[in-house]
Amino acid sequence: MNQIDQKNLLKYITAISFFIDDTVLFLDTHPTNQDALAYLNKYNQLRKEAVHEYTIRFGPLTTYKVDVTDSWTWVESKWPWEGEC
Amino acid sequence: MWNYERRLQCPVNIKETNPKLAMCIMSQLGGPDGETAASMRYLSQRYAMPYRNVAGVLTDIGTEELAHLEIVSAIIYQLTRNLSMEQITESGFDKYYTDHTLGLWPQSAGGVPFSSTFFQSKGDPITDLVEDMAAEQKARSTYDNLLRLVKDYPDIVEPIRFLREREIVHFQRFGESLRTVQDSLDSKNYYAFNPAFDNSINCPKDNSKNCRYK
């Protein structure tokens, strides 16, 4: 169950992050587009919340978020290129 | 500064190995129109770009190309992991295996090593942006060629299709960037000088807020 949750949450983060990546490129050439700015603002917030939840439940996505109270967990989990199987 | 995020921009989950297809897809890692050339092209060009908004496009697209490099690498890795000697010999992967075992190394489908001669950084905004637009189309054509080769393998088709779509979006953004550069120049004679080198031209009026020669 936990594995499915992790997979789904990462999928959600990946989707939201892509909306952001694409909107950032659009804003680079349309810097005053209000719709794009509002869209980015919305998804930045959703991404922030999702990444926070993921970090607490399944571990850090970046080295800045590693919890160092116990041990160095950054290198313990699977790398993204390993895939699901 | 770049930070690593522990995820792919587009997920790659390939169930069956296929060293023959890996050899072909490898061109988008280290071939003439591949993702290594793309990222190095844009990230090299941005320093001489006099318009900060266009330097932003080069930075952000160059960064995304690094993520594409990782997607292509993940595809090759998953297509070649745990190969048996028999699979290596039968698939024609034996020549690559001789030099690299199952390690990833940037080369073209034909075995030509990656070279910075695959791209240009000319220090002239119009020249560089036209090169960038051509590069996106050349990469798109390569992904079209690959899609014909991998059509029976949905696990491979999905990330390749994603990468192909991004070439089209990047082409659009570089086209818009080229237009803002051209709009900033003397519309009657914009080939007469290089706005990144002939500083006496000074700031173009319409794009002066983004020009660093202020």
What descriptors fit this protein?
heterodimer, A: 85 residues, mainly alpha, 2 helices, B: 214 residues, elongated
Please provide a written account of the structure.
The complex is a heterodimer of chains A (85) and B (214). Chain A is an all-alpha fold and 85 residues long. Chain A is 62% helix and 0% strand. Chain A has two helices and no strands. Chain A has helices at residues 2-29, 34-58. Chain A starts with a helix and ends in a 27-residue tail after the last helix. The model of chain A has no long low-confidence stretch (mean pLDDT 93). By secondary structure, chain B is mainly alpha-helical. Helices cover 57% and strands 0% of the residues of chain B. Chain B is built from eight helices and no strands. Chain B has helices at 19-25, 27-30, 35-45, 52-80, 85-91, 94-100, 125-150, 154-184. In chain B, α1 runs antiparallel to α4 (52-80). The longest helix of chain B is centred in the last third of the chain and has 31 residues, at 154-184. Chain B is elongated, with a radius of gyration of 20 Å. The model of chain B has no long low-confidence stretch (mean pLDDT 93). Chain A binds chain B through residues 10-11, 13-14, 17-18, 21-22, 24-26, 28-31, 60-64, 77, 79-81, 83-85, and chain B through 3-15, 53, 56-57, 60-61, 64, 70, 73-74, 77-78, 169-170, 173, 176-177, 180.
Q: List the quaternary state of the chains.
A: heterodimer
What share of the residues of chain B does DSSP label as strand, in percent?
under 5%
Q: Overall mean pLDDT score of chain B?
A: 93
Report the helical percentage of chain A. 55-70%
User: What spatial form of chain A do the alpha-carbon principal axes imply?
Assistant: elongated
**Number of alpha- plus pi-helical segments of chain A:** 2
Alpha-carbon distance between the two ends of chain A: 16 Å
Total number of strands of chain B? 0
Radius of gyration of chain A: 15 Å
Largest sheet of chain B: none
Extended strand count of chain A: 0
End-to-end distance of chain B, in Å?
Answer: 26 Å
One letter per element, helices H and strands E, the order of chain A comes to: HH
Low-confidence stretches of chain B: none
Describe the largest sheet of chain A: none
Structural class of chain A: mainly alpha
Report the radius of gyration of chain B as a whole number of Å. Answer: 20 Å
Q: State the helical fraction of chain B.
A: 55-70%
**Form type of chain B:** elongated
Mean pLDDT of chain A: 93
